[in-house]
Amino acid sequence: MDVFEADEQADECELMPAALSERIRERAYALGFDLVRITSAAPLPRAEAALKTRIAAGFFEGMDWLTPERAEVSSDPRALLPTARSVIALGVFYLTDAPRDLSAPSEPHGRVSAYAWGDDYHEVIRRKLDALAAFVRELASPGDEKSIVFCDTGRMVDRAVAERAGLGWYGKNTNILTKGWGSWVFLAELVTSLDLAADAPLAANCGQCEVCLHACPTNAFVAPYVLDARRCISYLTIEHRGAIPLELRPLIGAHIFGCDICQQVCPVNLVAERRLRASGRLGAGDRLEFRPRAAVGSSPELIPLLKLDDAGFRERFSHSPIKRAKRRGLLRNVCIALGNLGDPVAIPALIEALGDPEPLVRGHAAWALGRLGGAEARAALAATLANDAEPSVCAEAQHALAMLDGA
Ligand code: B12
Ligand code: SF4
Ligand code: SF4
Q: Where in the chain are the domains?
């Protein structure tokens, strides 16, 4: 079961809902949550309908765990905790002031989205959630209190809960925007059988703005609030396991893990960032766990990544969200970024990658060589076409040679 914890105790809590809510709120802030709101445990029918419609339209193809059954469970807090009466919606701000600037680096560098610069947020937030759950347990009379905690991987629609609790509002890019922190917040929940005082949803919305919809390089928004995940760079570089569709590769640019473009252009975020920078909240010393790990960085050098073996990958990315892409997925992305960056300095490393044990990596190295060109690349591709035993790699080499011929 992909919930973090299920606790049991008994009896009614003696505090009134409002007083109880205040004590929980205070403790949650003290534990390092930046946003704490409360909603009821009633079902979330719009989320269920939206999920089902989008699954049926194929927008989540490749994320096989997102099924209509899961849509039903994750849109109804009582499906997992029948005695649930309230949901505590939580937010943790994660942006730091690490540089994203890739201009004129000496070697090719890639882009990692801000949520993955530091420690794995699932682990960081899990510790906070466990502490909050223990506090909630203490508040209840023994024997009756039950709670379950969620963050991202649990069967709960994090954003729909956050919206109803008034933690933030839906942006047209489908992210939850918040007052003060923008959309740079992770979302989590504690579902409890305690009766707490619910907060009201916010009245805010995006108005006439559509900046994010037009900024998306892969044109992944079908309409405001509707994302075709199959085209989203975040899906392609993190969740997608196979070859990346040829027509989308040039649009991925230097992104090797996730994408922040539709958040970076958002005026609500820009205002929040300006305010936070002015008050020192983006500066050194704050949010240490989300600052770039030495082994990851916000824009790592790409050629050394291409040389990682399984053990090297595990060592470099343990406790980092990047481990989710697995070695073959990350190296596939690195090949695409090198092909897009167009720096011939990558040619020897890409030729070496034509001998990688993973066909997925060999195939994408071939594609990148087709983009970079030159006599060395051409000879290596011809050798791959003649000698590689894997048909998918030969097809990539053939396509790369055709690119070189201008076909
Ligand atoms: C699957 C998933 C993805 C998929 C699909 C994303 C998507 N937009 O559906 C992929 C892999 C692409 C993805 C990417 C990212 N993700 Co993601 N992802 C999830 C996950 C696991 C489920 C999301 C889900 O259920 N989607 C289904 C659709 C139907 O949900 P929805 O968009 O919220 O649908 C609502 C809106 O459409 C709205 N709506 C519809 N019509 C209208 C009309 C109006 C007027 C309004 C107001 C609303 C509205 O109603 C629907 C239901 O409430 C959640 C964690 C979780 N357990 O919830 C994280 C989560 C959504 N992801 C998160 C993050 C950080 C990201 C990335 C930013 C990571 C990155 N930098 O690369 C990108 C953002 C891309 C984007 N623009 O969405 C955060 C979002 C935090 C936030 N502030 O919103 C979450 C909540 C994880 C977490 N716990 O922090 N993700
Ligand atoms: S994360 Fe990037 S690719 Fe995905 S919708 Fe936003 S801008 Fe488009
Ligand atoms: S860029 Fe504009 S439309 Fe998009 S989420 Fe931000 S405010 Fe909303």
A: 1-100+115-225+257-293
The average pLDDT across 217-226 equals: 98
- In the prediction, which pLDDT does 335 show? 98
Residue 177, ligand 1, Cβ within 6 A = no
* Cβ-count burial 190-220 (b if 16+ within 10 Å, e if not): bbbbbbbebbebbeeebeeeeebbeebbbeb
- Region 252-279: mean pLDDT is 96
- What is the rounded distance in angstroms from the CA atom of residue 77 to the CA atom of residue 9? 19
Catalytic, 64? Answer: no
Which numbered ligand comes closest to the C-alpha of 207?
3
Integer Cα distance of 28 and 216 in angstroms: 35
Of 83, 77, 89, give the one whose Cα is nearest residue 38: 89
Cα of 174 vs centre of ligand 1, distance in Å, is 6
User: Average pLDDT, whole number, for the chain?
Assistant: 91
pLDDT-derived band at 295, boundaries 50, 70, 90 = confident
- Protein residue with least CA distance to atom 6, ligand 2: 262
Residues facing 186 on adjacent strands: 92
Nearest CA owner, ligand 3 atom 1: 266
Ligand 1 center–CA 160 separation, angstroms: 9
